[in-house]
Every structure is written in structure tokens, then in C-alpha cells.
Amino acid sequence: MDPPNDFEALAKAISGFGVDEDSMILILGKWHPEQLGSFRKRTPQFFLEDERLFERLDDNQIAYFTKEFLRFKNAVVQWTMHPWERDARLAHEAVTKGPQAYGLLIEIACTRSSEELLGARKAYQSLFNQSIEDVASRIQCIERKLLVALVSSFRYEGAQVNDSTARSEARTLGVAIKMSNKKNLIEDDNIVRMLTIRSRLHLKAMVKFYKEIHGRDISEDLESVMSLKETIQCLCNPQTYFSKVLIDALKDDADDDMKEALTRVIVTRNNVDMKEIIEEFDKQYGVPLSRKIEEVALGNYKDFLVSLIDRIKEKPIEIPIM
Amino acid sequence: MATLLAPEDFSPGEDAMALNKAFKGWGTDEKAIIWILGHRNADQRKQIRLAYQQIYLEDLIKKLKSELSGDFKRAVCHWILDPVEREAVLAYEAIIKNYRTDYRVILETAFTKSAEELLTVKRSYQFLYKSSLEEDVASHTAGDMRKFLVAVVSVYRYEGEEIKEGVAHSEANILGDEIQGGRGGGGGGALKGAEEIIRILSTRSRPQLLATFNYYKQIHGISITKSLDGNPADEFSEALRAAIQCIKNPKRYLQKVVRNSINRVGTGEDALSRVIVTHAEKDLKEMKDVYLQKNGRSLDDAVASETAGNYKAFLLTLLGNQDYF
Fold first, then answer.
1. Is the ipTM of this complex over 0.90?
2. A168 close contact with B: CB closer than 8 A
């Protein structure tokens, strides 16, 4: 094989989501020190010219490699873990990371069924010896009320909806939104209460009535308060929410947290609504999710994600008795 | 320990037939109803309900509701229910019955149960009433009371024994600030705030809260319940006091609820039957001991002198008495 192609191929094998293990074995396994040296000289994106005349691996690069090599391991562990433990660990990560991660708390609290959210709260106690309500109630931020109430919720999940209550709440909500200072919306007791204790069907009805009564989408009116907008979207339209999270993860300028969402969404939604998310993704962004993943993911990580997606499309298979 | 006396072997079919016989004719043979149902545990009662339905194609509860009346009816119809269902029904009645939600019942639901037990009650509530306990409490209360009640029924409380002393100390200070800040150290005036009290009471584990209450007394020289003592018309403060008393000592708290009910102090005349019915199969014996200790006479004597008729006979039966017919 032509050495320049090998250099490109190797660079490509470590420039994406995960790493292309097979190519690395194939190429690196046969290289001599001279080829390794040439590679280092030709890849300034990985190796810097040190003043003492050797090619040095950037510290950030080392961190990057660690992350990408671990992406497959993380996906596998997350997939194998009990869903309760998975969610508890994600929630813990969210509360400890700080404000930029609170969206993850909203995602978990709003897109899990009542029993699953409950399970996550139980697992949280087992893992961290305190309740998530306790921890969340000590967050120092304006979203605190909303977050605590969201993680404490145990919503009714039946079909019954009181339309007249939903309608009057839509009216009240519109008034509250109009009269308040945009920043204080997230601390408004009425809004927090409605979003955190009503059933999903009730909220969907409320959103519908809101449009009828006020002539606008509630998401438009809550545009300036990201957390409230996300809350409503997660509760009423999770597939749209997750499609957006996925496309953001796959963008060129995605940061670490956004990239991690790729694994998270595919693993956590697989047995829930992955099929609908895939359809929504296709509809919104004009390209099948599996194709996008083939483009940006590498190696075992890519194969694992693709198999997780393919199993959705296939007919249900016989589960072997173990 | 339970005070209920129930036989080991019984026949649900025979009981169902005996009950049916008690309903027949002009009046109702209440004594027979008391004798049978007052001596059956939850599992047995469930079987009797089933047998009655199978034999007579009628819901026993419906029948009881139509045949009985007054306090007696209420007590028996609560008693016949499965314990978890009963708690859900009691909560529902407390919320919608009168103009005002009987917050004491909600507090009992929230604070005299383990986290899992509270959960089973909430599930049962959703099944029975097609909405969540949280929603219904919220729609029938307002302001700080609403925030407090919704929060305490929502929490899945951690039940470990660990205590963080530093946190207990600082939260005792926070509580002191909110309670006494607006009052100048004594009782009477409105609370300075409610956010932190609600947060602490509705998220901390019981051992942690007990530690906090201890520090409160150390720091402020007065127990937290005393410093909340004041205007009985201030319902929210009264609710906080009740909650804290319940956290500190559930049996002593319930005993007081019963005593107040007997003495017709405040609202909640049905508290007497509520507490006896819900605890007869659990720990009414210990509660009787506390009652005797605190009041100088036995609960049985108090019930005997303050209630009458079939209602009295039924309560005494649940309390473990056999020999007054």
C-alpha cells in the first residue's frame, strides 16, 4: 500500500466518534519507527513541533484519544447496566457538573415513565446514600424549584383528562406568562406546578388549548426560558427533542457533552421510542440516522451503535432461553 | 402490635352468608356485622368480599353503605377496605370532602409511612381516582400549604441512618431564621419565609431531621415545635408543627390526634375512627400504651365513655375487647 494513503487512513481512524480499531491494527502493526516518525511529522493536528526538536503529543490530544477509545466501552457498559442505575448515574453527573448539565436532569425526569423515574430515584439512593430530591434541593440556581419538582414527580399515566381543567390552566398560564418578567417565569409557582404534576396527556391538551386561546404556541412564548421550553418538549414531544439532541451531537462543532448524547440517546431510548425518533430524525433532517452514524463514527463503537439501530428496524427475533 | 383479634381458620363463604342474613329483614343486625368484620384481618376481609360478590352478585361495600349509617357506617366502610386502598380513600375524602382539605390526614399519609408504603398508596390513588394524589392536593389547596403538602407527598425519602452533623447544624440555623425572623424570638407572628422549611422537611431523611431539631433546641433554647406555637388560625404554621411532631414521634402524635378527636377539640371528629381503623392491624397496642401514659386513662375507657351505640361497640372490638355485648 502507498505510505501516504496509510497516513491518511490512520489519521482518519482516530478522527471521529470512537476509533477504527481494525485500521489501527492493520497499519500501526506493520510500521517501523521511520514510518511512525513520518506520521508524527505529517499530522500537526495531533503532534506539535517541540523546541527541543521532537514531535510532541499535545496534552489535549491525549485526553481526546482517551475519550474516543473509551466511547465503545461507555456505550457497552451503559447498554448493559440496569436502566435505573444508568439514569441514576446520569442524574448524578448532571447535578455535579453544574448548570450546563441541568438539561440532562430535565431530560431524565420528563422522558422516563413514572415507574422508571421512580426506579432511578431508588437506584440513586443505593448508589449515593441520599435522595436525588435532597441533592437537587441544594442546587443554587434559578431552576431549582423546577428541577426538584421534576425529579420528585410521580405522574398519573392513564387516559383520563379533564378538558375543562386543562383549558382553564391554559388560560391561567397565558396570563402568567404575559404578566411576568421573562426571567421569573421559571420560578413562577403556577407554571412549575402545572408542568411538574400534571399527566402528559393533560399537558398535551393544555398545549393544544393554549394555542386555541392565545393564538400562539406555548414554546414560542417560553422561547427565552430554555428549561421551560425543554420541559414541555420532553413531556409532549420527546421524539422531536431527541432528534434535535442527536443532530446537535453529530454537528462538527459539537462539544464533549453534546457528543456523549449520541450514545446516551441511542442506548436509553432503544427499548422506548427509538423507532419514532429515527423517523422524526429522517423527517426533520432529510438523512437517515444510521447513514449519519456511518459517516462520523468509527470501529467497534460505530458497529455497536449501528446494530442497536438495526435491531429496531428488524422484526422481533426469538429471544433465546438462557 | 395489632389489637385486632381474628381467628386462624374461618370460612369466607359462611361469613358472607352470615352478613347477608344480617342485612335481611326490617333492620340490620349490626351486632352480627361487628362480630364478624370486627374479627377479620385484611386478607380475610378480602376473601369475604370476594365470596359475597360471587354468591350474591353484589358488592359488599355497596351493601354496607346502603344498610348502615352515621359514624358506624363510615368506620365499617373504611375498615372493610384493603389497607392500601383505604389510605388512598382517606386521602381522597380529606381532600374533597369539606370546603377545606383536612391537611392532617395528608400529613399522616406522608409521615407515618415508609417511602415504599407511601408509593403504594399513591399508585392505589391513581388507580382509583384517575389522577395523581399530588394533582388533587394541589388543586384543593393554595399558597404555602399547597407547596408544603405537594412536596411532602412527592418525596421518595432516603431511609438510611447516616446523619451529617454540619448540615443539621446549619439547617437548624436556617429554620430558626425563617421561623423566628419575623417574630422576634417568641410565638405569634407570621413566618419570615417558608421556602427553606418546606425544602428541609420535604427532602431530608428522618434521622437527619431529628438531628436538626435537636440542634435547633440547643441553638435557640426553645424546641422547634414551641417556636411554631402561636396563632391557631395560622393553618400553615399549625401544619408545620403537626408534621414535625409526627416526624419526632409518630405514635405520640397519633395519640394526640385521637385525644383531640375524643375531646372534640378542633376539626376531625372522624380522626378517632380513622386512627383506630388504620392502626388496629398494625401498632394500635403501642399507641394504647402511649395514650394511657399521657392521659391517665386507657383508650378503651375513653372510647367507651365518649362514643355510643354500634359505633362504640365496633371501635371497642377493633381495640381488642370481647366482652361488652
1. no
2. no
